[in-house]
């Protein structure tokens, strides 16, 4: 989708540097993906212990730790 928007030039440069010198398009896409992930995590945390999601915050943290450990192990194989 093509969209024309005004973005603060300094903010864009800072974002591009922090992500590693991607293009403006890639930077915006990464930023949007990260925003979505953040909001999903916040939503899950808010549901912890509810009838909808019968899991505690500690359980979520343990799952994240196991996932990170597994991801780290897989990277070391490459």
Q: Can you walk me through this structure?
A:
- By secondary structure, the protein is mostly helical.
- The protein has one domain (9-77).
- It is 72% helix and 0% strand.
- It has 3 helices and no strands.
- The chain has helices at residues 9-19, 24-47, 57-77.
- Helix 1 (9-19) packs across helix 2 (24-47).
- The radius of gyration is 17 Å and the shape is flat.
- It starts with 8 loop residues before the first helix and ends with a helix.
**What's the mean pLDDT score?**
84
User: Ranges with pLDDT <50 over ≥5 residues?
Assistant: none
Strand content: under 5%
Please state the overall shape, judged from the principal axes of the Cα atoms.
flat
Class from helix and strand fractions: mainly alpha
Write the layout of secondary structure elements.
Elements: H1 9-19, H2 24-47, H3 57-77
Helix pairs in contact: 1-2
Characteristics:
78 residues, single chain, mainly alpha, 3 helices
The gist of it:
The chain has 78 residues and is mostly helical. It is built from three helices and no strands.
């Amino acid at each position: 989708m093509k969209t024309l928007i005004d973005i603060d030039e300094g903010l864009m440069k800072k974002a591009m540097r922090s992500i590693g010198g991607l293009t403006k398009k890639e930077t915006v896409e990464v930023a949007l993906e990260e925003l979505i992930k953040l909001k999903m995590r916040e939503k899950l945390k808010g549901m912890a212990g509810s009838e909808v999601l019968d899991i505690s915050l500690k359980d979520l943290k343990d799952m994240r730790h196991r996932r990170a450990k597994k991801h780290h192990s897989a990277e070391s194989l490459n």
